[in-house]
Amino acid sequence: MSNPAPPDWMRQEERSHLGVLRFMVWVSLRLGRTVGRVLLRFIALYYVVFSPKARRTGAVYLERALGRKPTWLDAYRHVMSFSSTVHDRVYLLNDRFDLFDIQFVGDEQVHAALERQRGAFLLGAHLGSFEVLRAMAHQHAHAPVAMLMYEENARKINAILHAINPKAHQDVVPLGRPDSMLKARDRLDAGHLVGLLADRSLANDSTAECLFLGKPARFPIGPWRMAAMLRRPVFFMAGLYLGGNRYRLHFELLADFSTVERGERDAAIAQAMQVYADRLGAYCRQAPFNWFNFFDFWQRT
């Protein structure tokens, strides 16, 4: 039996290049963020013009989020927002938090949950910037964060981290291994926050249908099964890019599996997944240029 084909988001050609990234790191750290953002505008324009497939699929999403047909300017703003968050990694991973105006909304809920029980899950999406979470750990005495991700993604992330700052470190737990859940449990028991991006899946992942931006879409079940089996609270996390140097970190409790019994798990998971899809959709409408899925998200529905 042949292996299932990888999903579209994994097959899609990457236009990022480590050599270009290292050049941007050099420019940004030596000439400053302002000069780097000037170059970024030309990079974003190039991507809009020479990536027609990503532009078309991005337009499908933008039409749902905006409630109207997107324009070329909308496409440019979408790509520029993505480029800005990637560019800002240079500074966030070098602990230059002084360059940014970062607001926190709902983080007291996370603190309260960690006082009641050791460890919690942060479920995000390809929405805004996950790296701004470093600012929360920097400005507040907060739990360390471990990321759960597929091994190929982990390899790419580590290459990017090394290109930006060889001293930067990210605690990554590979998904898809027999011991993945055990390692996640160990991080939680040590009081860590465990983060996952729950809006994409592999071809062989179990998925469930949720209503998202007015149309059914499929989301991976795995993150929710893990949270339910490990009996931890789950928070939605979004680091929205607001333009310029402004970010806003949102935290919302999606579900608390700490008191859910085995026979109630499936129903609790289904409910939590729809709440996740609802909150993701709400933030996409609130900040439509922040969701960075440049492929046909609804292709299987």
Structure report:
This protein has 301 residues and is α/β, with parallel strands linked by helices. It has eleven helices and nine strands. A hairpin with a 2-residue loop joins β8 (233-243) and β9 (246-256). α2 runs parallel beside α8 (151-164), α3 (33-50) crosses α5 and α10 packs across α11. The relative contact order is 0.16.
For the record, give the distance between the C-alpha atoms at the N and C termini, rounded to a whole number. Answer: 25 Å
Number of domains: 1
Output the number of helix runs. 11
**Would you report the number of β strands?**
9
Helix and strand pattern = HHHHHEHEHEHEHEEEHEEH
If you compute it from the alpha carbons, what radius of gyration comes out, rounded to the nearest whole angstrom? 19 Å
The coarse silhouette is globular
What's the multimeric state?
A: single chain
Regions with pLDDT < 50 over 5+ consecutive residues? 1-6, 9-16
**Mean pLDDT figure:** 84
Give the percentage of residues in beta strands: 15-25%
Biggest sheet, open or closed, and with what strands and sense? Answer: 7 strands, mixed
Helix content: 40-55%
Content-based structural category: alpha/beta
Trace the largest sheet across and list its strands: 1-9-8-2-5-3-4
